[in-house]
Design brief:
The protein is an alpha+beta fold. The chain has a single domain, classed as ph1033 like domains (ph1033 like fold, Roll). The protein is 17% helix and 32% strand. Strands 1, 2, 3, 4, 5, 6 and 7 form a 7-stranded mixed beta sheet that branches. A hairpin with a 7-residue loop joins strand 3 and strand 4 (56-73). The protein is globular.
Length: 143
């Protein structure tokens, strides 16, 4: 059964993933990536432009599908070896979350909706995934 996920990362990190065709979750932890399967939908949500920055963005910044079952580690620095999954990203436009708060089952009626993103990976329903992808004007490879 296909699932849909929101991965939380700064826009700067999402752009690196877009360029390389991958995602990381939870600062490179393997466990969150193990929850995903080939064909699962991925949306990237960026609370900020840069990691730890005060430059609030609060936007969906990428959307696509998990490409395969591979989870792999890469050597970024001698002390940092994050895990990644390959993603086929769709052409899309960054989209602010604020206008969608009352439309998404994930956030509707929650005053402190941002708390839902604190663990870096959130499962969402098919309806929310489609609403977000539509708002982002996502174009699949078939479009």
């Amino acid at each position: 059964m296909t699932k849909h996920w929101i991965v939380v990362a700064s826009a700067e990190h999402v752009r690196r993933g877009l360029a390389g065709g991958f995602i990381q979750a939870g600062h490179g932890k393997e466990a969150p990536l193990r929850r995903m399967k080939r064909g699962d939908g991925i949306v990237c949500y960026s609370p900020t432009e840069t990691l730890g920055g005060k430059d609030r963005l609060q936007a969906f910044t990428a959307v696509g599908l998990v490409k395969d079952e591979n989870i792999y580690a890469v050597d970024m620095t001698p002390d940092f070896r994050p895990f990644r999954r390959n993603v086929t990203f769709w052409k899309s436009e960054p989209t602010p979350i604020a206008p969608m708060l009352d439309e998404l089952a994930l956030t509707r009626g929650y005053r402190h909706w941002g708390a839902k993103f604190r663990f870096g990976l959130v499962e969402i329903g098919d309806s929310d995934f489609k609403k977000i992808a539509n708002a982002m004007r996502a174009q699949t490879a078939d479009d």
